[in-house]
Every structure is written in structure tokens, then in C-alpha cells.
Write a structure and sequence with these properties.
By secondary structure, the protein is of the alpha+beta class. The radius of gyration is 32 Å and the shape is globular. The two termini are about 50 Å apart.
Length: about 800
């Protein structure tokens, strides 16, 4: 150990003044570096990147102070973790909003430049510092209007990224690249032209403010706002007031988008109308000594959550009469520092429309002992409650500070939400209830006299709503029975999809046991679509062929669903739906459903969606869907969109057939030694064509044919890489690199930037003489109406 410390001490003098140490973390050793404003812990294998990010972090910290007079906490703790168990493509970066930044990667590849499959790591550090600059100076993170916090971090992060590129250059990063263009203002300005999401609009508003009034005025407005330590709900209002004050221009507020100035509550709940009595089935009413306690839990904790940027909401209803809220009780435990922070958390009483009736405050110091689970009853000023109401408790937590809220899973239905007033209202992801209770007392003499009877009446009424309540609950472990169960797999797929798109839990009866939990989540998503104005019109099915080389939809289904892993057969399924915004058209979504046998019955084992949805006339028939889809593919060459908006490409069915026909003819000429015809069917820009020199070309081919004398073509099939998917960068790069070698230049240069648009067909060829076998990958390029080969049966370059 002493030898190692001595070596590290020597090393510290060789790396630009950084302090080097090490610590033990988990089962592996973690190195440490300290700079002027940053401290980095990292696995030794990532030392080069850790050094770079330390230098970048220090420079970014100072840039925020230099450019915007924003002083950040110090030291900022950057923790880099290598998590190979999450897969080599995994990358995640986040902050506790106070002083810590966490970077997890599945492999070193995710630390490469974005062009080489890495994440935007330089920008990421600048982005998270912007979050810390904001979150560390507001009293409550939750309630910030949608998009503003991310837009804030995106704008300032982009500005600082470009500033660092000008100051530090490309070589500061182990994989040098132009991070100004890929991740800084160069990228941001392009996004302004194409993206209209709330975060981009917020970033653009800050850009326009700085462009119109100058950086100093923006800095003054930002710092004046943060000096007031506003809540998330008040942040934008205070910023607008400060901006008008420092610029002297009342019109300055017009630069802030209306949707951020007056945000709508984001609703992600299946039942926003909480005035339906069945929603309260399972409520326990305990009337004793003039007080009524309302609860759903049984007193036993089954788990806990801390929700950054949100709160723990739960719905209650009251008996007839006038009742006042006296106290709120919950079961929780504080985490973080040894001593509780010197701040309060909030308890909101909201009406049935999720409008705040009253906000109450309570100190963190109530949970003085870190890690101690306890019931805490907080007495509030007596406040009359509506017939139906929410209690929301918000702790403003971070990764290193907060209070865990316990939940109880042993409830018949969920009455709980992830919520914050004026911001959002979301259902919980599973059936459970927060362990939150409230205490009511009669607000007048009449209510007090009848309290015992009205409590019994409400109990009886809720018990009578049991069947209605349980019909809405989706539990993966519940055995849903369908009788008679169909023998035909096509009928299984039809009944499954019919129930699935309508949010009917009957769909789970058709799902293999190990996938029910996943499908329960998807089922909840389909249940939300009618709330967003969608209604389904039809379903259309097609069995994916077992040999799908020349069937477009079968190839896509096999490709997307990975049927070899998930099932024995696969169906392409089209859903037709109309929206309230476009009633005259049907939006067609394309899906793939895989089935396999479980206990002798056909069961759904996989479901995937292709994001290439199209609009067709409302009068169209289901069987016309394929025609409309193929017409669009032929017109655009675009066959699919991923969820990230990236594009997928593949040849059309008739193109594949034509490409195969050409390849077989060319290979026949090649074996017969007809080099003149052969050369005429090679792409002229391919290096294999040797610039059209027939003599040299013939000499090369003669040598190759001699090595394969007696061998014949025994197999020729399309390669799966004929479908190039940008969201699989390694696969995309493999095709790109192969073509670059074949043409001696990047495909963009050799073939034009539209080379991906259904112009590349890739086939695997196999030759054999019964004793020897040779395999080759052949690339065909479509030029006009002709397919030309880029290579021949020889070792691919």
C-alpha cells in the first residue's frame, strides 16, 4: 500500500497539478483526481477520460462565473462508474441538483465522441452544471414549468460547451472532436430550425433574450431571480419580472413562450375526474373521539420512493357534511447528510380539479435521525376540505438529500399519484398507495351530530362499488381466463390485439407468463390513448412468412420482433385510429406480434411497433393498408422511423428480387470467365473495377477463380444488414465502413448522400465443392433502374 501511495505521489507531479488519490468503492478500486473546482472519482480503466473531464469541469465552472456571474458550489463531485452489466451501449448522466454529478457508462465506447457512438459528454458536464446553478438556488424544484429547466440547461450548457471549444480546443478530449458543432451552439442553432418541443422553445427564448439585450442583461435577470430563492412554481414569473426590470422593456416578457408563462398541468392519469366514488374503494374510515382518520394502508411498508421533481399525492373523499383537515400523517425516513438540511417541505391540500386550497410547511428537522423509519403526524391549521381532495407531500429531494415515502402494495386499487400542483399529475406505475393518512373533524355542530352515521353510510357505499373498482385494476399476476381459448394462432393474435388496443385486461390471458408484467405496462399506455382523443377503427393482420426474402412486411416483422428469440410465428398487424384533431383521416400504425406455445396453447411472446405511421383517407378499407404503406416507401425510400426520430432503410421487395437476379447473373458470368460482361455490371467507382481496365481486371479474376476451381454457388440470401438502422450505430458503421473500403471513399462522396435510401442490397453468398466452403458478403448498389455490384467473390477489403 505504501509503495502505491509513493508512486501516486510521484505521478501527481506529472499531470498538470492535479491531486491524485484513490478510494475503495464497492468491490472495485476507484481512483480520485482533484482540480480547482472539481473532484472526480473513476475506475482506473477510464483515467484518460477522467483527467479530461476534470479539466473540462474546472473550465466550465469558471466559464459560468465569467460569462453569467453564476457562482456554483465547490467542489463539484463527479462520480464516473463503469457498469458493464447494463450493456456496452448504456450511458446515463444526472445530478443531485446540489453538488454531485453522476456518470455511468456500460463501456468505454460511450465515452467516445458522438460521431463514433459516444454520448455528448463534454456538453453533458456543462448541461448538468447549469442544472446545479438553478436547482441549488430554488426552494423547490418541483413545479418548474415543463421544458424550462431542461431548456435552461440546454441553452447555457450549449453556450459553455462552445466557449470551452474556443478556449481548450478539440485535443482536450481523449477522442478529439469538434464539440462546438456536435454538441454546442452549432447543434443548438440547427435544433431551433426543426424542433418545437418545450425544452427547445425555452432554450430559444433565452437565446433571443441574450441576442436582443446582451449577455450582461440576461445575467442580471438570472441572478436577480435566483437571489430571491423562488419556488419552482414561481420561477418563471420571477424571471420575467426581473427581465423587465433590468431591461426597462415591458415587452421583454413576450420573448417567453406562452406555454411556459402559463403552463398547463400535465395530466398522465387514467381517471382525472376524482369525483367518481368507486375510485375510493378500499378507503378505511376510523371515527373515534370526535376525529375521523382516513387511510388506505395496513401499516406494513412494502417499499419506498423518493421522487425528484415531484411529490407524493393521494386522493380522499369525506362523508356528508362540513369537515376540516386537522393533521396529515405519513411513514417515512430521511436520507442524505448526518444532519437534516435547514429547510422545509410542503404539504398541499388540493381540490378535485387539482387546484391548491392551502399549502402547509413542515421542517426537515422533524426527521432528525437519518435512516429512522417513523410515523410523523403534522398538525395543520384547520382547513375545510372539499368533497373529493388530494393531499400532496413534496420534499424537494435530490440524490443526496430527501425523505423516502413508504408505500403499501396490499391495496385493492391505487389511489396514489406522482404529482405536484400546477405542474403534473401522473398515475403510479404499479398498484400501491403511499402511507399517507389524514385526520378530519366536523366543522359544525350538525356534521358532528350525524358524523357516526354518515361515516357508516360512506363505508357501505364504497363497499358496494367493489366490482366496479376491481374491473379497472391491471395486475400481471392475476389469472385472466378466456373460454373457449382459440386453437388458431391467427385468432389468438386477433383477440389479443382487439383487447390490447382497447385497454382491456383480457389481453393478458393471451400473453406468456414471463411477459405479463411488461404487457401490463403497455396495456396502461393503450388505456391512456382515449384520454388523448384517439379512437381505434380497425385491425388488419398478415402472417409473416417463414422465408421472407421478397416480402417487405415479413422481413420487417422478422427484423423488429427477432422472432427466433421471442416466438415461433409472427404477424404484422396494422392499427387504424382517428384523433379528435384529424377526424377525416385514419392514422395507421404498424406492429409485429410474435407467438409461441406455452402449455400447449398459442401465447403472445413479443410485441413491437414500427414508428412509420401514415395517414390514409377515412374511407380506406383495412385490406388497402399495405398498398398505401408501400406507395409511401416507394415515394420516399424511408421505411421506418425509430422512437428517437431516426430513420431506417431497406430495399423494397421487388428491388430485392431484382438485385438477387442481377447478382446470380453476374456470378454466373464470373464463373464462366466472361470478364467483359462482368466488368459492365460492376459499379464503375468500385476499386474492384480497377478503373475499367479490362486487362488488369481479367488477370485478378483469373487468379481468384483458380483458387475456387470446382466450387459452385450453393446459397445466396439477403443479409439482415440490408436494413440499415441508425439507432444501431455499430451495425450502421459496419455497412458504412465496408462501402468506404470498397469505394476508397465515404459512401456520401462515392454514391451521394442519398445512398442509404433503399439503394443498398446486401447478400450472403456461399460456394462449395462438397469438401471446401467459401462465404462472401456481396454489396449491390442501385443506380437509376439498374443494380450494379460493388464487389465479387474474393476476400472483402
Amino acid at each position: 500500500m505504501m509503495v502505491r501511495l509513493f508512486l501516486l505521489a510521484l505521478l501527481s507531479g506529472l499531470i498538470g497539478g492535479f491531486n491524485v488519490g484513490f478510494a475503495q468503492q464497492g468491490s472495485g478500486q476507484t481512483e480520485m483526481l482533484s482540480g480547482k473546482h472539481f473532484r472526480v472519482s473513476y475506475p482506473k480503466a477510464l483515467q484518460a477520460y477522467a483527467k479530461a473531464l476534470l479539466q473540462i469541469g474546472d473550465a466550465a465552472w469558471e466559464a459560468y462565473r465569467e460569462l453569467y456571474n453564476l457562482t456554483l458550489p465547490e467542489p463539484i463531485e463527479l462520480q464516473i462508474r463503469l457498469v458493464p452489466e447494463k450493456g456496452e451501449k448504456f450511458a446515463s448522466l444526472w445530478t443531485d441538483g446540489r453538488r454531485f454529478i453522476f456518470l455511468e457508462v456500460g463501456s468505454e465506447k460511450r465515452l467516445l465522441s458522438p460521431e463514433r457512438g459516444g454520448a455528448h459528454n463534454v456538453y453533458g458536464i456543462c448541461h448538468e452544471l447549469a442544472h446545479i446553478a438553478l436547482y441549488s438556488r430554488v426552494s423547490q424544484i418541483a413545479g418548474i414549468p415543463e421544458g424550462f429547466a431542461e431548456g435552461w440547461a440546454h441553452y447555457f450548457g450549449s453556450v459553455i460547451t462552445s466557449h470551452l471549444f474556443e478556449k481548450l480546443g478539440a485535443e482536450v478530449y481523449p477522442d478529439p472532436h469538434n464539440y462546438h458543432e456536435t454538441s454546442g451552439l452549432g447543434r443548438l442553432l440547427k435544433q431551433f430550425e426543426t424542433r418545437k418541443d418545450p425544452s427547445t422553445l425555452a432554450a430559444k427564448s433565452l437565446y433571443e433574450i441574450e441576442r436582443k439585450y446582451g449577455r450582461q442583461k440576461l445575467s442580471e435577470a438570472v441572478n436577480r431571480t435566483l437571489s430571491q430563492r423562488p419556488s419552482g412554481r414561481d420561477l418563471v414569473i420571477k424571471f420575467v419580472e426581473a427581465l423587465v426590470a433590468v431591461t426597462g422593456d415591458a415587452e421583454a416578457k413576450t420573448l417567453i413562450p406562452e406555454q411556459i408563462l402559463k403552463p398547463k398541468v400535465r395530466m398522465g392519469t387514467e381517471f382525472p375526474d376524482i369525483a367518481q366514488k368507486w375510485l375510493y374503494y378500499g378507503l378505511k374510515l376510523e371515527w373515534q373521539d370526535g376525529l375521523l382518520r382516513l387511510r388506505y394502508d395496513d401499516g406494513e411498508k412494502d417499499g419506498q420512493w423518493s421522487i425528484a421533481g415531484s411529490g407524493h399525492g393521494i386522493i380522499f373523499c369525506k362523508p356528508k357534511g362540513k369537515w376540516q383537515l386537522l393533521a396529515v400523517e405519513f411513514y417515512g425516513a430521511r436520507y442524505g447528510a448526518l444532519q437534516p438540511p435547514d429547510e422545509d417541505f410542503s404539504i398541499f391540500l388540493c381540490d378535485a380539479n387539482f387546484k391548491v386550497v392551502r399549502e402547509f410547511k413542515a421542517p426537515y428537522s422533524l426527521f432528525a435521525q437519518r435512516g429512522e423509519w417513523k410515523w410523523e403526524r403534522i398538525v395543520v391549521e384547520p382547513t375545510e376540505v372539499p368533497d373529493f381532495f388530494y393531499i400532496v407531500i413534496a420534499f424537494n429531494p435530490t440524490a443526496t438529500k430527501g425523505i423516502y415515502m413508504a408505500y403499501d402494495s396490499d391495496v385493492p386499487i391505487s389511489h396514489s399519484r406522482k404529482a405536484f400542483p400546477d405542474s403534473h399529475l401522473f398515475d403510479t406505475e404499479k398498484v400501491y398507495d403511499w402511507m399517507i393518512r389524514c385526520y378530519l373533524k366536523p366543522a359544525d355542530e350538525e356534521t358532528a351530530r350525524q358524523a357516526a352515521e354518515t361515516v357508516r353510510q360512506l363505508e357501505s357505499e364504497l363497499e358496494g362499488l367493489k366490482e366496479q373498482a376491481l374491473a379497472h385494476v391491471i395486475r400481471p399476476e392475476e389469472e385472466v381466463v378466456v373460454e373457449p381459448y382459440p386453437d388458431d394462432p391467427a385468432e389468438v393474435a386477433r383477440q389479443f390485439m382487439s383487447a390490447f388496443v382497447n385497454g382491456d385486461k383480457k389481453a393478458l390471458a393471451f400473453v406468456v407468463k414471463e411477459k405479463r408484467e411488461l404487457f401490463a405496462v403497455l396495456l396502461e399506455m393503450f388505456r391512456e390513448l382515449p384520454l388523448k382523443g384517439w379512437s381505434f377503427r380497425f385491425l388488419h393482420f398478415k402472417l409473416a412468412k417463414r422465408n421472407p426474402e421478397h416480402d417487405f412486411f415479413s422481413r420487417m416483422a422478422k427484423r423488429v420482433i427477432e422472432v427466433q428469440k421471442l416466438g415461433e410465428i409472427c404477424f404484422a398487424v396494422w392499427t387504424g385510429a382517428t384523433s379528435k384533431d384529424k377526424p377525416s383521416v385514419i392514422n395507421v400504425g404498424t406492429h409485429a406480434v410474435a407467438l409461441k406455445r406455452e402449455n400447449g396453447l398459442w401465447k403472445v411472446s413479443g410485441f413491437e411497433t414500427w414508428w412509420n405511421s401514415i395517414d390514409i383517407p377515412a374511407s380506406a378499407k383495412p385490406e388497402e393498408v399495405e398498398r398505401y404503406l408501400l406507395e409511401q416507401v416507394r415515394a420516399t425510400g424511408i421505411t421506418d422511423y425509430s422512437a428517437m426520430g431516426r430513420t431506417c432503410y431497406m430495399p423494397l421487395p421487388e428491388d430485392l428480387a431484382e438485385a438477387e437476379k442481377t447478382i446470380r447473373q453476374v456470378l454466373s458470368w464470373w464463373q464462366e470467365g466472361k470478364d467483359d460482361k462482368l466488368l459492365g455490371n460492376l459499379h464503375p467507382k468500385s476499386k474492384v473495377a480497377i478503373g475499367g481496365d479490362l486487362k488488369k481486371f481479367a488477370e485478378v479474376q483469373k487468379q481468384v477463380r483458380a483458387k475456387m476451381k470446382g466450387m459452385k454457388l450453393v446459397r445466396l440470401v439477403p443479409c439482415r444488414d440490408s436494413i440499415v438502422r441508425h439507432e444501431q450505430p455499430e451495425e450502421f458503421r459496419s455497412v458504412e465502413q465496408s462501402l468506404t473500403k470498397l469505394f476508397g471513399a465515404h459512401p456520401d462522396e462515392a454514391l451521394g448522400k442519398n445512398w442509404l435510401y433503399a439503394r443498398i442490397a446486401i447478400f450472403d453468398a456461399e460456394f462449395s465443392d462438397g469438401k471446401r466452403t467459401e462465404k462472401f458478403r456481396l454489396f449491390a448498389i442501385k443506380e437509376g433502374n439498374c443494380w450494379l455490384l460493388a464487389n465479387l467473390p474474393m476476400r472483402n477489403p
